[in-house]
Amino acid sequence: MHKRLLVTAAVTGFFSVALGAFAAHALKQRLDEYSLSVFETGVRYQFYHCFAIALTAIVYKSFPGKPLVLAGNLFIAGIILFSCSLYLLALLGKEQFGWLGAVTPLGGFCFLAAWALLAWHIIRHKQ
């Protein structure tokens, strides 16, 4: 679990930087300002949560438990649902694919649940 989350954090961080560079260079001329902003929001939240995944892995090393496994998986699900829905919405257009906007809050809920589980597990864990 510890190693899997650390690798996932590294890979997610890598793609955050790559997608951010892609947006800054390749998409800047192709997307309108709103769509570029939506894409960049996805990158920003993905990047924040690669650190959350790494933090979860580090905490797991000291305080192992199933809630941390769930928190790590929820952070990953949050990236997929939140960030990826924003990427697709920005690239495919809200006119045809506006329904993707309904997926984004599910990812936000996954992020919130993961942060809450992380805090709860640390608070209740006895050393």
Instruction: Work out the count of structural domains.
Output: 1
Using DSSP, what is the number of strands? 0
Report the principal-axis shape.
elongated
Low-confidence region ranges: none
Helix percentage range: over 70%
Mean pLDDT: 93
The number of helices is 5
Order of helices and strands: HHHHH
Strand content: under 5%
* First-to-last CA distance: 20 Å
| Largest sheet composition | none
Structural class: mainly alpha
Radius of gyration: 16 Å
Question: Could you name the key traits of this structure?
Answer:
5 helices, mainly alpha, 127 residues
Describe this structure in words.
The protein has one domain (2-124). With 127 residues, the protein is an all-alpha fold. α1 (2-27) packs antiparallel against α2, α2 runs antiparallel to α3 and α2 (33-62) runs parallel beside α5. The two termini are 20 Å apart. The chain has helices spanning 2-27, 33-62, 66-92, 94-97, 104-124. It is elongated and about 55 Å long. Helix content is 85%, strand content 0%.
Structural topology:
Elements: H1 2-27, H2 33-62, H3 66-92, H4 94-97, H5 104-124
Describe the structure in brief.
The chain is 85% helix and 0% strand.
